[in-house]
Amino acid sequence: MPLTKNLAAALLLAASLPAAAQSRQETLLISNWKFTKGDQPNGAKPEFNDAKWQTVRVPHDWAISGPFDGKNDQQVVKIEQNGEKEASLKSGRTGGLPFVGVGWYRRQLTVPALGKDGRAVLLFDGAMSNARVYINGKEVMFWPYGYNSFSVDITPHLSAKGPNTLAVRLENQPEASRWYPGAGLYRNVHLITTLGAHVPVWGTYLTTPEVSTSSAKVKLKTKVDAPAGAKGLKLQTELRDAKGTVVARATTDIVAGAETEQDFTVASPKLWSPETPTMYTAETKVLNGSAVQDTYKTPFGIRSFKFEKDKGFSLNGQPRKFKGVCNHHDLGPLGSAINTAALRHQLAILKDMGCDAIRTSHNMPAPELMQLCDEMGFMVMVESFDEWKSPKVKNGYSQYFDQWVEKDLTNMVHRDRNHPSAIMWSIGNEVPDQSSPNGPAIAKRLQDIVHREDPTRPVTMGMDRYDDDFKYGIAAVLDIPGFNYKPMRYADAITKLPQGFLLGSETASTVSSRGVYKFPAELAKDKQYPDNQSSSYDLEYCRWSQIPDIEFAAQDDLPYALGEFVWTGFDYLGEPTPYDEKWPSHSSYFGIIDLAGQPKDRYYLYRARWNPSQPTVHLLPHWTWPGREGQVTPVFCYTNGASAELFVNGKSQGRQTKAAAGATDPQTRYRLQWKNVVYQPGTIKVVAYDAQGKTIGTEEVRTAGAPHHIKLVTDHSKLAADGQDLAYITARVEDAQGNLCPDATHELRFAVSGAGSFRAIGNGDATNLEAFQQPQMHAFQGQLVAIVQAGDKAGAVKVKASAAGLKDGELQLTAGK
Ligand code: GAL
C-alpha cells in the first residue's frame, strides 16, 4: 500500500533528526535486476512491464555466453598498426561474441529516508557502453566511455512515495574496439546515501609529500558538501595502521566551499612496496558538534618514488626496473563481468612469476583491481585511451574525444589517485595523432589535465611511431617517454630525449599456444600453421614485435631503460594475431598465461628472470612424440641457474652455460638450448646449477603412455563461503604413471555438488568454440581449467570430472565462513 503523504513526510523528517553514526549507507546493487537485449522504446518508464525480461545479477556481461560466431564481429578492415596495406575480411577480432547492440537493465531502488539534507548518489564503476541512466523515466546521466567510472546525484529525481525505478540503456556500436569490450553493467553499481554534510564521491586526496623510514608527512585534502547555511562543522581524521591502531589524528574546521587540508606526521612508517604492501587507512568524520554527519575512509600507503635523469626509477630510495605486464580487462571464461576472486587468482599467478607491475591496457581498470594491487603489491600504470582525435576503428573513442576527454581523465585521476599502487598515468596507447603536427599539443593538454588533478605522478603513453615521435615532438613532451616494441631504437632515442630515461611501455608480443610445439624450432615472423596454433618454443613474433630475449638484453644493458610491460600477462578475448583472418581463432596468442589461466612455457622464462627468490628449472617441449623417433627435437631449459646439464635416457647431452652480456644472440643469455637432441621415447632430465656450481634444481619429463585417468588439481581448497570465491581446478589427462598425455583431447564433463557450483570452463585454445558456461569441454593439449564458485553456506564441495575411456577425477573442496 502506498504511504500517505503525511506519513512519508514524517519518515523523511525522522531520518533528518540528530545524525546517527551510520548516516552514510553504501549498497552494491547486485540482485533483482531485469535485463533484455534489443531496444525498448518505453524501457525507461516506471510503468513498463519487465516481467518477461531475464532476471540477472550485476556485474553482468550479456555477451559472454555466446554463442561464438564469426559473423558477430565480421569486419572488412585494414589494421594499420599491424602494417597492413589492404583491407581484408576479419572475424573474431573482438572475440566473436554477440556484444554489439542495445541492452536494457531495470530494477526498483529502495532508498533509505533522506530527510531534508540527505543525498542519494549512484556510482557506476563502468558500464559498457554509451550508458543512459534513467530514474523514474527521466534521463539523469549519459556517459559514453564504457571503461570509466561515473556518478550521478539522483536525489532531485526520487519520489518520496517510492518505489523508484532505475533503468539503464547501454549500446555497443560495431567496430568500436580492437578487442572484446564486454557488454552491459559489467562492473558494480553502488547506491550511496548520506543524511547531511558529507564527503562526496572521490572527495579525498591523500599524498605523502615527505617519506623516510623514520617519519612521513601525510597530507589529506577533503571536500565536504554541506547543506546551505551549515555552520561550525569540523573534520576529524584518524590515520590507522594495518592493525587498526591510530598513528596520527587531526581535527580541523571545515571551510565552506573549499577543500579542508589536514597534515599529519607518522613516525616509523611501514613503507609500501610490491614486496611489503603495507596499507593504512584515513578515517574521516564530518562533525556537527558531537554529532557525526558522515564517516569516510581513504585507504592509502606510504611510499616515495622518483624518476631521475640518468638514474632511472627508484621506489623508497631503491633503484628498480619495472617487471610489468599489460593486461586487457576480460577474465577469460568469465568474460568482462568483474569478479574479485578471479582478479586475485590472476594476480597470484603473476606474483609467483615475480611480476611487480601492471599496465591497464588500454583503459581505466575496475576499482577492485586497484584495491588488490594495493594489497598484493603491484605498481600500476593506469591507462586511459586507445584513441584520441584520429580513429583506429570506425566507432572508437575518437568520436567522443573533444567533448569527453577532460571529464574522462578527471574521473580516472580522482578515483585512483589515493592508491599507493598507482605509480603513473598513461594518456594513451599508440594513438595515430603521434603522426600529426598537433600531436604534441594534444599530449601536452592531456598531461596538463592529469597534472592539475594529481601533481604527484608522472604521465606516460605507449608510442609506436618512432620517427614521427621525434619528428613532430611528442616524445619530448611526456614525463616518461614510453616506447612500444622499440628495444633496437633505445640507444638512439636516449640521445634525443631530454628526460634522460625511457620505458618499454609495451614489449615482446611473442605468440604461442600452450603445449604446442612446431618443428623446426626456429625464429619466425608472422608464422601461420594449418591448425591455427603458434609454437611454444617462444620463437614466433609479429611484424612489429620480438621474442622476449631482445627486450631482456636491452633492459639489462641500458641503465636508462626503466623496465618493461610485456604484451600480455594473460591471453584475452579478441585480437587473434597471427590468425586475424582465420576464423575460428578469436582470442589472443600473446599471453604469457593462457585464456584459462594456465602458464605457457614463457611463464618460466619470465619467472627465471623476475623471481630470484625461487629456483626455476623448466624443460620444454613435452616428450611424447610418436613418429618423431630419430628426428631432431630441440630441448630448452628456462632457469635462473647459470648452467645446466641435460640427459636423454640417462645419457648426457652436455652442459650449457648462459652467455655473458654482449653475446650477439640474446637467446644464449637467457635460455639454455640443446638444439640437436634426437628424439627417442623415455626421459629427459635436466640438472641446473648456480654460478658457483651448486645444484639449484632438477626437472624431468617422461614420454606418456595411454591416457588412463583424469587428475584434478585446485589452486586452493579452502574457499570462503561468500557466494563469490572461486577455485580454479586444472584437469589433466594422465597415463597410469601420472604423466600428462600432451595430445589428449577427451571431452571432460564436470559435476559439482554440495556447497558450491560449476561456474565456467576454459581450455586456452584460441580456436575453441565450445561455450564457457557448459560443464563440459574438450581438453587442449591434455588439460583444461574448470572454475567452481562457492555458495553462501559452509560445507564440502565435491567436484567430479569424467570422460569416455578414462577413470574419473575427483576432488573435495571446503567452503567455510
Ligand atoms: C600493440 C597494441 C596492442 C596490441 C599489440 C599486439 O601495437 O598496442 O593493443 O594490439 O600491439 O601485438
Describe the structure.
The protein is mainly beta and 817 residues long. The protein is built from eleven helices and 48 strands. The strands form twelve sheets. It has an eight-stranded parallel beta barrel with strand order 23-24-25-26-27-28-29-32, surrounded by five helices. Strands 3-2-6-11-8-9 form a six-stranded antiparallel beta sheet, with no helix packed on it. A five-stranded mixed beta sheet has the order 41-48-47-43-45, with no helix packed on it. α2 packs across α3 and α4 packs parallel to α5. The longest helix is centred in the middle third of the chain and has 16 residues, at 401-416. The radius of gyration is 28 Å and the shape is globular. Mean pLDDT is 95; it is low at 1-21. Beta-D-galactopyranose is lined by residues 81, 429-430, 462, 464, 484, 506, 509, 542, 545, 567, 575, 590.
Q: Which structural traits does this protein have?
A:
11 helices, binds beta-D-galactopyranose, 817 residues, mainly beta, 6-stranded antiparallel beta sheet
* Spatial order of strands in the largest sheet: 23-24-25-26-27-28-29-32
Strand content: 25-35%
Q: Roughly how many Å apart are the termini?
A: 38 Å
Helical fraction: 10-25%
Q: Which molecules other than protein and nucleic acid are bound?
A: beta-D-galactopyranose
Look at the helices and sheets and give the structural class: mainly beta
Layout of helices and strands:
Blueprint: H1 5-16, E1 25-28, E2 33-37, E3 54-56, E4 75-77, E5 88-90, E6 101-109, E7 119-124, E8 131-135, E9 138-143, E10 150-153, E11 164-172, E12 189-194, E13 204-211, E14 215-222, E15 233-240, E16 246-253, E17 260-267, E18 280-288, E19 291-300, E20 305-308, E21 312-315, E22 318-319, E23 322-326, H2 340-353, E24 357-359, H3 367-376, E25 379-383, H4 401-416, E26 422-429, H5 439-453, E27 459-463, H6 466-471, H7 474-477, E28 480-484, H8 490-496, E29 502-508, E30 524-525, E31 540-541, H9 548-557, E32 561-567, H10 601-610, E33 617-620, E34 635-639, E35 643-648, E36 651-657, H11 667-670, E37 672-674, E38 683-689, E39 695-702, E40 709-714, E41 718-720, E42 726-734, E43 747-754, E44 756-762, E45 776-778, E46 783-790, E47 795-803, E48 806-816
Parallel strand pairs: 23-24, 23-32, 24-25, 25-26, 26-27, 27-28, 28-29, 29-32, 30-31, 41-48
Antiparallel strand pairs: 1-12, 2-3, 2-6, 4-5, 6-11, 7-10, 7-12, 8-9, 8-11, 13-14, 14-17, 15-16, 15-18, 18-19, 20-21, 21-22, 33-34, 34-37, 35-36, 35-38, 38-39, 40-42, 42-46, 43-45, 43-47, 44-46, 47-48
Helix pairs in contact: 2-3, 4-5
The structure holds beta-D-galactopyranose.
Beta-D-galactopyranose is lined by residues 81, 429-430, 462, 464, 484, 506, 509, 542, 545, 567, 575, 590.
